[in-house]
Each structure stands twice: as C-alpha cells, then as structure tokens.
Amino acid sequence: MAPGSSIMPGKVNPVIPEMTNQVCFKVIGNDTTVAFAAEAGQLQLNVMEPVIAQSVLESVTWLRNAIDTLRTRCIEGITVNADHCYEMVRNSIGIVTALNPYIGYKASTVIAKKALETGRSIYDIVLEEGLMTREKLDAALNPASMLGAHDLIK
Known about the structure:
Ribonucleotide Reductase Protein R1, domain 1; two-stranded antiparallel ribbon; 7 helices; elongated
C-alpha cells in the first residue's frame, strides 16, 4: 500500500496489517477501560456506564472498519502457490518428526542431522539409506495425511 524504501525498489510496506494491529491495541485499551470501569461501579448505580458504552461502541466501530479494510485491501485476491508450498514442506527438516513412528526416534535424529549438514532433503536421505520404500515414504510425508488422525503404514 505504501512505498517501502528508497534503496529497495519494489518494496511495499504492510501498512494495512500494521493499521489492523494498531486498532487491536486500541481495542485492548478500551477493554481495560471497560474492566476497570465495571469494577469501579457501586451496587446498582454504576456511574461508569457512559465510559463503558463509549469504549464498547468505539471498539465495535473500529474493529468493523479495520476488518473490512484488511479483507478488501489485503486478503482478497491472495492466491496460493501450491507447488512452492509443497516444496517448502517437503524440504523442511521438521518434517522428519512424521517418520518417528516408522523408523524410530534415533534414526530420525540421524537423518535430520545429515539433512541439516548436507542441505539435502529428508526424503532423499531416507530413500538413499533404504529406510523406507518410496510408496511408504510418500504416504508418511504427505502433508495432507499429517492434518488428522492416521494409521501407521506397515
């Protein structure tokens, strides 16, 4: 939304998400005001109602506007580069944890260290070491299968 730098051509500052953060900080302040005002009220006669009402109404208005702005000017139109995301997951060292049930903790640790030292993928090292078949490895490292409960592939 705003030019980001005179020395970094093409950089754009994320002013809409930053604005959304600022609104959230203001709402947190209003919430604190409401909490203190409610606590300061005496019995049935709460003279703090005006500041409570003002704070709540202001927060609702600011949040509505911030959410609409964030949605229309920042979120809508975002698309996923599925191939890139898949490669990022596949080449992550952390994905080795999915192999613990299949090859054990110690072997997974060795594989992770080797991947870290060599810059190679977990996938390639497991195949090279002959620890799993390609089919079992594909199933174990399938990101979709990691999203819910699954049975071990034997």
